[in-house]
């Protein structure tokens, strides 16, 4: 594309640019094949995720004192909890399963486990896709972009995320949604009820833990999620940080090539550029989509550690 064409494309509104980028690559018929959703593949993926969670949780819970075994088990268990963000995200797109009711139920339960509210997140995330990397419109751009090593370590620690999630859930439960333009008036009551129910689940879990005199809530949810969050923060930071700050979907999102265990627990979200270009493609078809699309993307990087090393090296130069 010539420099004049690039300059002209930057004058287009976001949705036009997105349409242009995607329609030029995969045709309608080919895309319809990739778009095929599957209850079976979704359930197998979910079963695999829950198996990792259950086995690592069992090893963690039965090896207190045997720290060379318990600590690695806790790390895996914690990340399997934090990465419940992935089925919540897929269910929110309604691409995890063919059945929309199943998508909604799994997304809500996965959100409870990962401290997200899927009802709120679905609306928030819709705007993120519609206005990806557009300043003033993409709600994700309100998150901290690290400018120095201290801010990077703070973001990776997950502490700002914990504060934001806890404060945000209580504000939403109290109906304070005026600063959430992505939640329409017609959807506010549903978001509020969903968040209130989620907080009630946490309250019940805490009450049961106290009633039986066992620190179950802390040992099997709070601590593991705290341990797993830094890994998830590194992954999510890699998705757009350092990419172009505009609506060009071929340059504003990164795909990160990673190992199979990570792809399993993150439901192939590492193929993030492919997902943003064609959000209708379900998780299980993203590897196939990558084979067809990878030559079109600017940012395809080998591994999350490498991406985060590059982010640290560019601290102070990042736009968002």
UniProtKB/TrEMBL annotation:
Under the heading Pfam families, the entry gives: FA_desaturase
Say if the entry is tagged with keyword Transport: no
Name the InterPro entries for this protein.
FA_desaturase_dom
Q: Which GO terms describe its cellular component?
A: membrane
Tell me a Gene Ontology molecular-function term this record carries. Answer: sphingolipid delta-4 desaturase activity
**Which key words tag this protein in UniProt?**
Membrane, Oxidoreductase, Transmembrane, Transmembrane helix
Q: Which parts of the chain span the membrane according to its record?
A: 67-86, 199-223
Name the EC number(s). 1.14.19.-
Name what cofactor the protein needs: Fe(2+)
Is this entry keyworded tRNA-binding?
A: no
**Annotated Fatty acid desaturase domain residues:** 66-299
| An example Gene Ontology biological process | ceramide biosynthetic process
Of which family is this protein a member?
Answer: Belongs to the fatty acid desaturase type 2 family.
Q: What is this protein called?
A: Fatty acid desaturase
Which lineage do the record's taxonomy fields give for this organism?
Bacteria, Bacillati, Cyanobacteriota, Cyanophyceae, Nostocales
